[in-house]
Amino acid sequence: MTTNTEQPSAREHTLDRDCTTLSRHVLQQLQSFSSEARDLSAIVDRIALAAKLIYRRLSRAGLMAGTLGFTGEVNVQGESVKKMDVYANEVFISVFKQSGLVCRLASEEMEKPYYIPENCPLGRYTLLYDPIDGSSNVDINLNVGSIFSIRQQEGDDLDGEAKDLLQNGRQQIAAGYVLYGPSTMLVYSIGHGVHSFILDPSLGEFILSQENIKIPKHGPIYSTNEGNFWQWEESIRDYTRYVHRHEGYTARYSGALVGDIHRILMQGGVFLYPGTVKNPQGKLRLLYETAPLAFLLEQAGGRASTGTQNLLDVVPDKLHARTPLVIGSPENVTLVESFIQDRARRDVEDSVASPS
Ligand code: AHM
Ligand code: MG
Fold this sequence. Notes:
This protein is α+β, with helices and mostly antiparallel strands and 356 residues long. The protein contains eight helices and 15 strands. The protein is globular, with a radius of gyration of 21 Å. The structure holds 2,5-anhydro-1,6-di-O-phosphono-D-mannitol and magnesium ion (MG). The site of 2,5-anhydro-1,6-di-O-phosphono-D-mannitol has 11 residues, from strand 5.
């Protein structure tokens, strides 16, 4: 027979964890009930509502008319827009209307930021987000994600150029992602470590799953689209040849950044989206893709780089600016950088040896 002394504490522990919702967790992290702490807690809670709405639609997408496929339009990035991109973008706008929390939203799907005048000047935050990242996976029922970042709004920015957002990634107050996979998971940081929550559909709540996640210092995974090999700089090809020729590496690439980064966060390794001939700055956008992920992985003990610069130091020149991305376990990222530095040094030596 088991002793009764242990049973209540195990039960209490489970109950306590089940009651640790996102909004409560944010307040615990900030150890405060100040108006700023309550605002942040409420913003994260609204993001969770957006995630639940997107999850609900994704989970039935193949059964509902008008959810899969393209709209026929092309977005500001020159990419074909999917119906789910439009829906998810509108969900984020809708959950922040009349919230008094966020004054402006900027996303991959909108050329200019979207203002919610009734929230200004009460809500002096900007939410930057990619509503559905990896949307090519939607039509084939594979994992996708949403990425978000919260910044203070500094200016009035009435011309829509969002100049006050053209600052480095260290200005982020919070960042995270939602992974729509076998379960729906929200991973976030407000600068106090990285924590994950899983949506319990029976409760309709995100429940704490893991606190203070730490990325392994080194890992076996390299995650990149090797179909771009012909378009890469020689240094990235050097690195790829290195992992092909050394034991201990394995390739994983799903075509959806959030899932690929989540795997690396949990198991260690590196994700690369370097510049290509077509896109010298790579494909991924700084303000709502690479900077939030860099913020998050640094908080977990990882590193993020453009290959030559810490990603959190990059100052964008426009709202939809792109950056190359090398992100993951610190030792793996440093190894990629060493190939880039080596090649740059050899190029200088060659040009000194045979000036044109
Ligand atoms: P998206 O935001 O338009 O979906 O594009 C971003 C996605 C990332 O999730 C993924 O890592 C990358 O594009 C895949 O691009 P590629 O097909 O060039 O490998
Ligand atoms: Mg994206």
